[in-house]
Amino acid sequence: MTQRQAGNQAERVAVSEAVSEAALQKAEEYIEQEEGAANKFKGLMAVFITLTAVVMSAFHLYTAYAIVPTQTLRPVHVAFVLFLSFLVFPVAARYRHRTMWWDWIAALLSVAVAVYLIQGGDDITDRNTSPLPWDIFFGICLVGLVLEAMRRTAGWIMPAICCAFIAYALAGPLLPAPWTHKGYEVGRLVGVMYMTLEGIYGTAVDVSSSLIILFTIFGAFLQYSGAGKFYIDFSFSAMGGKPTGAGRTVVLASFLLGGPSGSGVATTVTLGSVAYPMLAKVGYEKNAAGGLLAAGGLGAIISPPVLGAAAFLIAEFLKISYLDVLLMACIPTLLFYFALFLMVEIDARKYGMGNTVFEKADTVWNLTRKYWFHFLSLVSIIFFMMWGFSPVLSVFWATVVSFFTSFLRRDTALIPYDSFRGPGIAKKLWNSPFIKAMEGGSIGVLNVAATCAGAGIIVGVVTLTGLGLKFSTIVIDYANGSLLLTAIFTSLVVWIVGLAVPVTASYIICAVIAAPALTKLGVPDFAAHMFIFYYAVLSEVSPPTALSPFAAAAITGGDPYKTTLQCWKYTVPAFLVPFVFVLDPSGQGLLLMGSSKALAHADWWSIAEVTITCALGIAALAAGFQGWAFRKTSRLERVLLIVAGFALAYPGWIADLVGIALVLAVLAMQLMRPVPQPA
Questions:
Q1: Which of 68, 258, 585, 599 is 20 to 30 A away from residue 286, measured at CA?
Q2: Measuring CA to CA, how many Å separate 580 from each of 267, 422, 598?
């Protein structure tokens, strides 16, 4: 063995040990911050939890195909969520991995609340303005149970915000103008929160019970049939062997993994544990590698066909097809990944990564030939929607497709081939990936569903008190009627809210209090809600809840806050895009005009023009933030590129001409420079 070969082998060993068990365990803690620190049971309790979760998944799959009244589905969904949340998530860390008597009381009370409401029928709904004492008792219990479930699954912040909104509803006459309102008694507030479909059982829970849980079940089916591993292997094979292979692999794999998962932190950790050694080998320092991994994970929330849970809420708030939401996300998603691809291309030149070559474990052709059906599962949702099925039925049939196609290979079968051979058939079925997928689908939705129930409290208060209109009036007054300033103020509000709460909660809060400010100034509803959705996504990379970068830093061993700044560097170019589709009607072309019907009559040249100028603006910002175009940029060139990027992101032909001129000027300055600076 030559000295060089020995050195390469030592390097490979060092890199392979880069992601230690301690690092992965620390990264899992950040997933627990987002999804809750779940108990791990053994024996009869583990069997009971699994059985309950499987029944919950089976019930929701049944409701996707059969007709279940809304007044029944939503309370039963919340009862399942609360029941499992109190058994799966402990009241405090010292009680972890065991169930206490108070957990059982809270779990059984959750069922009692739903039974009382369902048995009451229409009579309960009719008396929501003057509830009986038992109505008030069970309503107060439900509010308390939802707050506690949120605290267990997502921390203190969201329950504290909900309590602040409840206090606002109760203390209306005591507040100073313009926040004052007539105030509401406990009975009236409980009537809205518990006895109607406008509070806890409102839009957010409707989406959680009919769409979000079905997509988590679908994602679990893909995971346990080996689709996640295939997407990573496919990305490594497709991008391996090239100088920019490491960075490109992260970008492509994050898109493929993010599609079915819809979770930024989970995608970051799953990908980081595999891809970080490769990034380290090509020369990424710890913080830059973590920033790229977190940026890739962030793409999971904005990538079709699943997007994040908030995307389902957009369809429900706007009363539009989920297919239209996917349509609107297409170009912004492509621009986001275009920015990431540019960044990794620049990284390769900036850090001199051209000498590193990776061996492919298998060819793209062999992987595709063996596991092509995983792509079929992913695109079947879109196929069923275009065929005319509702989103609920589309994901139901896509789940059925993923179940049956898993049997095309022995190593991906959700029920192993030998399950029905020999003794112990029941035990083999119980331990099969199918049961684990059914369990994982329900357990995985608990934190999001609890947040949706809590968000119903906020939506109910905003609707009851008219807070949304008050807030929008205040924002417009501060902006002095300027659409640009209103958009900036709105983005700041969404960002600040997102510092404290997850994406789903951030979107729901701001959709009801901030979106009216934009629509009052003539921005279409769909553009306003997509604007808020994209800035709500920033909560994944904004301290103190920057869970994706913090999880990436745990894997790479980097500094969490420096990793967050690196993540911002990778994602900021794409996050200027939302301003394009609210500041000018032509910018709505990036959203493909908001619907397939409007797109049929759209000006395709205008859509192409705004897309190309945005892509050029993103390229200018990427070069400016990286400090590298054809070669290393000077300070003047860097400033000019950033200014050009902002100008191209502002719709209008004058701004576009200024931006293009500045880009051409910088490129000319670089080409005319006599001696290139070495990387």
A1: 258
A2: 28, 63, 18
Residue whose C-alpha is closest to residue 455's, from 502, 420, 489: 502
Pair of tokens at residue 589: 């072309």
Residue 619 pLDDT > 50, yes or no? Answer: yes
Tens digits of residue pLDDT in 655-677: 889 999 999 999 898 888 766 55
Residue 439 CB: number of other CB atoms within 10 A? 20
Neighbours of 669 (CB within 10 A): 15
Q: Is 627 left (phi over 0), alpha (psi -120 to 50) or beta?
A: left
Six-digit token pair at 620?
């200018």
Angle at 115 between CA 113 and CA 121, to 5 degrees: 110
Measure the CA–CA gap between 527 and 328, rounded to whole angstroms.
Answer: 9
Residue carrying structure tokens 């806890």:
200
Q: Which two tokens stand for residue 579?
A: 């301003």
Tokens of 639: 């400033």
pLDDT tens for each residue of 257-286:
765 555 667 778 777 777 787 787 777 888
CB atoms within 10 A of CB 59: 17
In this model, does residue 379 exceed pLDDT 70? Answer: yes
d(CA 138, CA 134) in angstroms, rounded, equals: 6
pLDDT of residue 49: 95
Burial label for 123, CB within 10 Å (0-12, 13-18, 19+), is: exposed
Q: How far apart are the first and last CA of the chain?
A: 31
H or E segment at 32? helix 21-35
**C-alpha distances in angstroms, 606 versus 68, 279, 589, 603?**
45, 39, 7, 5
As a whole number, mean pLDDT of residues 436-461 equals: 91
CB of 250 within 8 A of CB of 292? yes
Q: What is the CA radius of gyration of the chain?
A: 26
Contacts (Cβ under 8 Å, ≥6 apart) of 250: 271, 275, 279, 292, 293, 296, 344
CA distance 594 to 602: 11
- How confident is residue 543, by pLDDT bands cut at 50, 70 and 90? low
State the average pLDDT for the chain.
Answer: 84
With vertex at residue 282, the alpha carbon angle to CA 280 and CA 285, rounded to the nearest 5 degrees, is 45
pLDDT band at 514 (very low <50, low <70, confident <90, very high): confident
Three-state secondary-structure class, residue 628: strand
Q: What's the confidence (pLDDT) of residue 400?
A: 95
Does the model's pTM come out above 0.85? no
* Angstrom distances, CA of residue 186 to CA of 127, 130, 193: 14, 11, 10
Distances, alpha carbon 165 to alpha carbons 162, 169, 360, 450, 515, in Å = 5, 6, 55, 17, 18
Neighbours of 525 (CB within 10 A): 17
Q: Please, are residues 114 and 79 in contact by the beta-carbon 8 Å criterion?
A: yes
